[in-house]
Write a structure and sequence with these properties.
The protein has 111 residues and is an all-beta fold. The protein has no helices and eleven strands.
Amino acid sequence: VQLVESGGGLVQPGGSLRLSCAASGFTFSTAGFAWHRQTPGKEREFVAAIDWSGNMPYYADSAKGRFTISRDNAKNTVYLEMTSLKSEDTSLYYCNMHTYWGQGTQVTVSS
């Protein structure tokens, strides 16, 4: 199993980013996924999740109305579209499937 995140970077407050999680090594279409984030000195925090069907996304309160999780089964990829970014969204974002985690992609929101 391999989960590889990408798409992080430096963005100004109010800006947008789309994170990607490319998955391999298992049957993608039957798996649910989640995005989490972790800032140094803090516990890892749940951000959003999507089930195998893609019809029931679930968001942390901090992400509701600003972030959108989606999946493309043809590309074996899960996305996290982030808009209206705030400085407090600065973190290392991880893709998760069951007990498997990616290496993370850094998002920095700063002017």
